[in-house]
């Protein structure tokens, strides 16, 4: 097993379970010290303990990324406690799905606050630190809905499109400081949340995937571990689909 992220410090937001935990676990497997960020303390603690049980290095810091002060504290506390910050993965996200003509302002605001503003809230203080150090890897989680839209997800799709624009802009601004910024577009991933969909809906989604199966959180983690490594030092402003050839 390669340990090409040895001595690197990584933050993964929304990492207590699902795709976020898969990402955190893979980064730890590659040698990084991982800071699990989540809003639920019990889940965050359990996630960090699982990684440590697997031989990795992990801790947790609670943060609601939609709150700038909490996001800023997440970045600064990590730097103070771990001595540095090399990798930031913005994975935290929520859904408040409903048709546009029924969508409430509260549902719109909540999704934009976490899925888009939350990414900015973490990136801004991280960018300050990474510019000074002239090193950094920022990887944002978007969605295929940024390009295609999705019925019932006007808020989610708009937020994820914003993440792509933010990623591309930050990559242009930070490139000269040796900071890369990329985005991942996950396909249909087998998580606790997706396992809750009806069997018929599951089969329909899998039928759209050329590889004939749902992905695993670790599949996303593998791509992120590569983008976080020195082997990807010349890759920035990229939008990478990890979906097994999913056709939407």
Largest sheet: 7 strands, parallel
Strand percentage, roughly? 15-25%
Supply the CATH superfamily name: NAD(P)-binding Rossmann-like Domain
Number of helices: 8
| Strands, count | 7
Uncertain residue ranges: none
Fraction of residues in H or I helices: 40-55%
Please list the strands of the largest sheet in the order they lie side by side. 3-2-1-4-5-6-7
Structural class: alpha/beta
Nearest-integer average pLDDT: 94
Q: CATH topology, what is it called?
A: Rossmann fold
Oligomer: single chain
Overall number of structural domains: 1
Overall geometric form: globular
- What's the CATH first level? Alpha Beta
Summarize the structure.
This protein is α/β, with parallel strands linked by helices.
Descriptive overview:
- This protein has 248 residues and is an alpha/beta fold.
- The protein has one domain: 3-Layer(aba) Sandwich (Rossmann fold), CATH 3.40.50.720.
- It contains eight helices and seven strands, in the order E-H-E-H-E-H-E-H-E-H-H-E-H-H-E.
- The longest helix has 29 residues, at 105-133.
- Strands 3-2-1-4-5-6-7 form a seven-stranded parallel sheet, with helices on both faces.
- Helix 1 packs across helix 8 and helix 4 runs parallel beside helix 6 (154-174).
Write the layout of secondary structure elements.
Blueprint lengths: L8 E5 L4 H12 L3 E6 L2 H13 L3 E6 L5 H15 L4 E4 L14 H29 L2 E6 L3 H4 L5 H21 L4 E8 L12 H9 L9 H12 L10 E4 L6
């Amino acid at each position: 097993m390669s340990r090409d992220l040895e001595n690197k410090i990584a933050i993964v937001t929304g990492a207590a379970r699902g795709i976020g935990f898969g990402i955190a676990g893979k980064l730890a497997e590659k040698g990084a010290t991982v800071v699990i960020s989540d809003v639920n303390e019990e889940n965050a603690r359990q996630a960090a303990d699982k990684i440590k049980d697997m031989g990795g290095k992990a801790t947790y810091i609670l943060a609601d990324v939609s709150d700038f002060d909490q996001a800023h504290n997440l970045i600064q506390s990590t730097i103070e406690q771990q001595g540095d910050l090399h990798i930031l993965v913005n994975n935290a996200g929520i859904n408040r799905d409903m048709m546009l003509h029924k969508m409430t302002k509260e549902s719109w605001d909540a999704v934009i606050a976490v899925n888009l503003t939350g990414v900015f809230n973490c990136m801004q203080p991280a960018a300050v630190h990474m510019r000074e150090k002239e090193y950094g890897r920022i990887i944002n989680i978007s969605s295929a809905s940024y390009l295609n839209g999705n019925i019932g997800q006007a808020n989610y799709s708009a937020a994820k499109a914003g993440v792509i624009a933010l990623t591309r802009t930050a990559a242009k601004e930070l490139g000269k400081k040796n900071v890369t910024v990329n985005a991942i577009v996950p396909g249909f991933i087998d998580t606790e949340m997706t396992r809750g969909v009806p069997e018929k809906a599951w089969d329909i989604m899998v039928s759209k995937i050329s590889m004939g199966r749902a992905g695993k959180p670790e599949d996303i983690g593998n791509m992120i571990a590569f983008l976080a490594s020195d082997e990807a030092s010349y890759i920035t402003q990229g939008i990478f689909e990890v979906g097994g050839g999913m056709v939407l």
